[in-house]
Structures are given as C-alpha cells and as structure tokens.
Amino acid sequence: MFEMNCPYCNEMGGLIATHRHLVDTHLDKVETVHEEDSGHMFYLVPCPFCGLKYRHRVKPRHRNPEFLQEFKAEIALVAFDQLLYHVLQNHSADVGVNLADLEME
Ligand SMILES: [Zn+2]
Ligand SMILES: [Zn+2]
C-alpha cells in the first residue's frame, strides 16, 4: 500500500481512499457535455498538473436527457479512475508517490 496526495487539494490517502475522496469532494471537476448536433454525450476531467482534459464518450442505455445529472457520480467514478492512472503515470512526484515504490497488481 502507498499513500498519495489528492491531485486537487493534497489530502493524503491510499489509492482507494483518494478515489473515493475525489468522487465525494471534487465531483464538480467533472464536466459533462451534451452535443446538440450529434446527440453524443461526453465527460471531461482536467489534469491539474498538465492541463490535459480527458474527454470520453458516454453511451447511456436510454436516451434520457436527465442521464448526465442522474449518473454523474457513476460517470465520475470512471473519470477519476482514469485521472488517477494518468497522474500516477505522469505526475507521481506531484502527488508524493515514488514510482519505484509502486507495486501495480
Ligand atoms: Zn481533494
Ligand atoms: Zn497530466
């Protein structure tokens, strides 16, 4: 087990705790976009270190305009998963993690 800082506010915790913290505390960092023209839905999550914005298509099972609001927490679970992976791969020192100590399972 290793500890890391939250990429947004530096709170310390393990990977799972940090992921939960992100969903609980930083849900507002995840933007959801509904393109009127195509009808496609996306979420965006910004990396606080390099400014990269992950953009991923969301494919709701139902064409429900309320989808993005209702499922934002679920979308955020996936979005923050990808953000944490990116941060650990590219900015490990910025979140207080020594990559050499990481044992990825
Ligand atoms: Zn935080
Ligand atoms: Zn980055």
- How many helices? The count is 3
Bound molecules: zinc ion
The proportion of residues forming helix, as a percent range, comes to 25-40%
Strand fraction: 15-25%
Structural class determined from secondary elements: alpha+beta
Average pLDDT, rounded to a whole number, is: 86
Low-confidence stretches: none
Order of helices and strands: EEHEEEHH
Major pleated sheet: 3 strands, antiparallel
Folded structure, characterized:
With 105 residues, the protein is an alpha+beta fold. The protein has one domain (13-94). Helices cover 32% and strands 19% of the residues. It is built from 3 helices and 5 strands. The chain has helices at residues 15-25, 67-70, 72-90; strands at residues 4-5, 12-13, 31-34, 41-46, 53-58. The strands form 2 sheets. A 3-stranded antiparallel beta sheet has the order 3-4-5, with helices on one face. A two-stranded antiparallel sheet has the order 1-2. Helix 1 crosses helix 3 (72-90). The longest helix is centred in the C-terminal third of the chain and has 19 residues, at 72-90. It is elongated, with a radius of gyration of 15 Å. Bound molecules: zinc ion (2 copies). One zinc ion binds at residues 47, 49-50, 52, 86, 90-91.
Give the key terms:
single chain, 105 residues, alpha+beta, three-stranded antiparallel β-sheet, two-stranded antiparallel ribbon, 3 helices, 5 strands, 32% helix, binds zinc ion
